[in-house]
Specification:
Elements (H helix, E strand, L loop, with lengths): L5 H7 L14 H7 L6 E4 L3 E5 L9 E5 L11 H20 L6 E5 L15 E6 L20 H13 L15 E2 L1 H10 L3 H9 L6 E2 L9 E2 L2 E2 L1 H13 L5 H19 L3 H11 L3 H4 L15
Antiparallel strand pairs: 1-2, 2-3, 3-5, 4-5, 6-7, 8-9
Helix pairs in contact: 3-4, 5-6, 7-8, 8-9
Bound molecules: adenosine monophosphate (AMP) and zinc ion.
The site of zinc ion (ZN) has 5 residues, from helix 2.
Length: 298
């Protein structure tokens, strides 16, 4: 984002200090760390799935965030999306793994009063079928993880045939020069094929570097806004001077991306207003829009 709004931030937003408490140790963190035995179903950067040791039915899987979060409301939105992607892929894999499954249940207990017994958020994915016996109490269903190994292996094999969508590749760091090939991969991963065609047809003369959410917050209340700032920068870099509609689209997409990252709208709308306000004259703040290609630095 080619703008310098350091001072504007203080005009538009109250600044709230964010305190990060150290995550408490917990059973599922031990599973994530590999220090507790478990029957693994899936692992990626953000999500782990393993079989419950108190299965309601064979294949009963728990999908958890890698980074400790206590309940649904504590899991960052992009991780929640990754969890539901994994849950969907696991549910689709049940029949291919030879598990009885006329239907399946997604369940998330949040808070002790709602039946949550492990304080690390987890989404149950449970195969269900007609004519099941009534559920016994959870303690009576307990089995050792080793007894679940063959079901987990079948599920892993079934998932390999139709895996959950790959997590997006990490973005280049702030200020790092990004080669065109990397920009192509990012455009593919973020669903921006038209932007890539525009860049490929006529690569801008100056190499691309993102300065993230300059003058704003790259991290807002524990959530990184960098991906939104990065893509906004990329669109500005590839734009042609005078492409007012394209710039509006880029700004609106910034607002949408920020809202999706945060799962709320207020900060997103503030940032949108900020990037639309106009030039430095109106704000008495030192920044430049920079929408449009610029020649290489001499
Ligand atoms: P909830 O009542 O929603 O908190 O569910 C907790 C789930 O975690 C139950 O299905 C338990 O059987 C399961 N569980 C507890 N400890 C472990 C463990 N060490 N490995 C796998 N599953 C576990
Ligand atoms: Zn944990």
């Amino acid at each position: 984002m080619k703008l310098r709004l350091d001072r504007l931030v203080f005009l538009l937003l109250p600044v709230c200090p964010v305190v990060h408490a150290a995550p408490p140790p917990c059973v599922f963190c031990e599973i994530v760390a590999g220090t507790r035995e478990h029957a693994l179903v899936h692992r990626d950067d953000r999500v782990l799935a393993f079989l419950s040791i108190g299965p309601r039915n064979p294949g009963h899987t728990l999908v958890v965030p890698v980074r400790h979060a206590e309940t649904f409301g504590d899991v960052p939105p992009d991780t929640l999306h990754a969890m539901t992607d994994v849950a969907r892929a696991v549910a689709a894999a049940f029949p291919r793994a030879g598990l009885r499954c006329d239907g399946y249940q997604l369940q998330m207990n949040n808070g002790r009063a709602a039946g949550q017994t492990v304080g690390h958020a987890h989404l149950h994915v449970i195969p269900r079928f007609a004519g099941e016996a009534p559920a016994e109490p959870e303690e009576a269903r307990r089995v050792a993880p080793a007894a679940l190994a063959s079901v987990a292996a079948r599920l892993r094999a079934a998932l390999a045939a139709d895996p959950p969508p790959a997590p997006r590749p990490p973005l280049p760091a702030l200020g790092e020069e990004v080669p065109l090939e990397r920009i192509r991969e990012i455009c593919v991963a973020y669903g921006l094929p038209q932007l890539w065609r525009k860049i490929e047809r006529d690569p801008p003369p100056r190499p691309f570097r993102s300065d993230g959410c300059t003058g704003w917050f790259d991290d807002w209340q524990g959530v990184s806004l960098y991906p939104a700032g990065f893509l906004h920068d990329l669109k500005y870099w590839a734009g042609y001077p005078g492409e007012d509609v394209e710039r509006l689209v880029a700004d609106a997409e910034l607002m949408i991306d920020v809202a999706r990252l945060l799962g709320s709208t207020a900060m997103a709308e503030t940032m949108f207003r900020g990037v639309r306000i106009g030039g430095g004259e109106q704000l008495n703040a030192p920044f430049s829009w920079g929408f449009g290609r610029q020649p290489p630095r001499p």
